[in-house]
Design a protein that fits this description.
single chain, alpha/beta, Rossmann fold, 2 domains, 6-stranded parallel β-sheet, 17 helices, 15 strands
Length: 414
C-alpha cells in the first residue's frame, strides 16, 4: 500500500516533487529532442498546482562526465510549454536564491530547481546499494538539511529512478510523508498486476542486450508462476542457445565480451527446471557482409556469422503464442533493430502485440524506442517510463524508492 495524492489536502502546502525528466538533448543547442518523460509527469504537476500546492520540482539531467550533463533551463521551458503555465527555473538548489524563491511562492506556483546531480552529495557511489545505506544518511546531507524545513510533503513521481537511493530520491522521506505521484502509482499498480495476478495465458517476451537483467526476470516470473510461457530473443536467446548445446560460433565471443559467460549455467538450470515454458528461437537472421541471411538452428551445425535477429519461422511461432495470450509483457528488442535489415523480428513482435486483445506492457528502454519507430506506441496498453527500474521490479528486486513509499504508508496512514 502507498500514500497517494488523494490522501492529503495540498492547498497552501509546499511540496517537494521529485520527477524524472532526464531527456535526450542536443548538446550544442540544448534543445530537448524527446519530451516523452516531461509530458508523462504533467498530470501530477497540474493536479498539485490546481489543488493550490506550491510545487517545487527536483530533477536531474544525465550525470557528470556525459556530454548531455547540463542545466534544467531547457526543461523548464518545455514544461511551461506542455503545462500551459509558467514553470520558473531556479539556477540553484539549496542556496539562498533557491530558499528565497521557495519562500516567495504563491499557491499554485511551480518552480524547477537546478539539476540535483550538480551537487557531489547526490552522485556519491555509496548511494547505489540499498543494503548499505539508510534514508537517515541521505537526509543528513547538506543539500537536504538546507531545504527540508521548507516543505510539508515529499511526492515521488520518478519511477524511472526508483531503483536508485540518492538523497533527492529518498532523503526527504526521513522528515515528512513520502507520497506516490500519479506516474509512480500507475507503474506500481500495473507492474504488480502482471506479476501477481495476470490474466492467463501470461506471456513474457524478453530480449535485448542486457542478458543478466532479463535472466533475472525469467527466473522470477517462472519461479513465481507469473508467466505461462517466456519467449526469448536477442543476446538472451544466445545465452540459452549455448546452454542448450548449440554452437553459435562468433556469437559466444560476444557473450564473453559482454561478461555474460556466468549466465550460461543459470540458463541451463532454468531450462532443466522450466524447459517446457521457455520458448527458444528455431531460426536466426545472420549478418553476412551487412546482408540478412536466415538459417535454421541445428544442434549439429555451427553458426559462422553474427546473429542479429530472429528468423521468420521464429517470428511465426512467437506470433501464434502471442495471439492466444491474455497478458503480454515485453522487454528488449529481438535484434539489432537500428539496422533496417534486422528490424523485422522486433517489428513483427510489436505488431503482434498491437493487434492482440491481450493486456500489453512494454518495459521502457530500447523496446519503447522501437515501438515509436514501428508506430505502435498508441496501440499498447502501457509503456513503462522506467527501463532499469522496470526490469528490476519485474525481477522481484527491492527498489529503494518503493520500499520507502511502503514504509511511509505504514508510518503516516490515517
Amino acid at each position: 500500500m502507498l500514500l497517494t495524492i488523494d490522501d492529503f489536502d495540498f492547498n497552501g502546502k509546499t511540496v517537494a516533487l521529485r520527477v524524472d525528466i532526464n531527456s535526450p538533448i542536443d548538446v550544442n543547442s540544448e534543445i530537448i529532442l524527446d519530451d516523452t518523460r516531461i509530458k508523462a509527469c504533467v498530470d501530477t504537476i497540474k493536479e498539485l498546482s490546481n489543488k493550490g500546492a506550491k510545487v517545487v520540482i527536483l530533477a536531474h539531467q544525465s550525470r557528470p562526465g556525459k556530454k548531455d550533463f547540463t542545466t534544467l533551463q531547457s526543461h523548464a521551458v518545455k514544461l511551461s510549454e506542455v503545462l500551459g503555465k509558467e514553470v520558473e527555473y531556479i539556477d540553484d538548489m539549496f542556496g539562498s536564491h533557491a530558499i528565497n524563491s521557495i519562500k516567495r511562492m504563491d499557491n499554485g506556483d511551480i518552480l524547477l530547481l537546478e539539476n540535483v546531480r550538480f551537487y557531489s552529495e547526490e552522485v556519491l557511489k555509496d548511494w547505489k546499494k540499498w543494503e548499505d545505506i539508510t534514508p537517515k544518511k541521505q537526509a543528513k546531507t547538506i543539500m537536504l538539511k538546507r531545504i527540508y524545513s521548507l516543505f510539508d510533503y515529499f511526492i515521488n513521481d520518478a519511477f524511472a529512478a526508483a531503483h536508485r537511493a540518492q538523497p533527492s530520491l529518498v532523503g526527504l522521506a526521513y522528515y515528512m510523508p513520502a507520497i506516490a505521484g500519479r506516474i509512480m502509482e500507475k507503474e506500481i499498480k500495473i507492474l504488480s498486476k502482471v506479476i501477481q495476478n495476470p490474466e492467463r495465458p501470461s506471456i513474457f517476451v524478453l530480449g535485448g542486450a542486457k542478458a543478466d537483467d532479463s535472466i533475472d526476470v525469467i527466473k522470477n516470473v517462472l519461479n513465481n508462476n507469473s508467466a505461462d510461457k517466456v519467449l526469448i530473443t536477442g543476446i538472451v536467446a544466445n545465452v540459452f542457445l549455448v546452454a542448450k548445446g548449440y554452437n553459435i560460433g562468433p556469437n559466444k565471443k560476444v557473450i564473453e565480451d559482454m561478461g555474460y559467460l556466468n549466465q550460461i549455467e543459470i540458463a541451463r538450470e532454468l531450462l532443466d527446471k522450466h524447459g517446457d515454458k521457455i520458448v527458444m528461437p528455431i531460426d536466426a537472421a545472420l549478418n553476412v557482409n551487412g546482408n540478412r541471411e536466415e538459417v535454421k538452428l541445428n544442434l549439429n551445425e555451427e553458426i559462422t556469422h553474427p546473429i542479429h535477429d530472429i528468423g521468420s519461422e521464429t517470428i511465426k511461432l512467437y506470433d501464434e503464442i502471442i495471439s492466444n495470450a491474455k497478458t503480454i509483457v515485453a522487454n528488449g528488442p529481438a535484434g539489432v533493430f537500428e539496422n533496417k535489415n534486422f528490424l523485422k523480428g522486433t517489428e513483427e513482435l510489436l505488431n503482434s502485440m498491437a493487434k492482440s486483445e491481450a493486456f500489453t506492457v512494454i518495459g521502457g528502454g530500447h523496446l519503447s524506442a522501437a515501438a515509436g519507430v514501428v508506430g505502435v506506441s498508441d496501440k499498447l496498453d502501457h509503456i513503462s517510463t522506467g527501463g532499469g527500474a522496470c526490469i528490476e521490479f519485474l525481477a522481484g528486486k527491492k527498489l529503494p524508492v518503493i520500499e520507502l513509499l511502503k514504509e511511509s504508508y505504514q508510518k503516516y496512514k490515517k
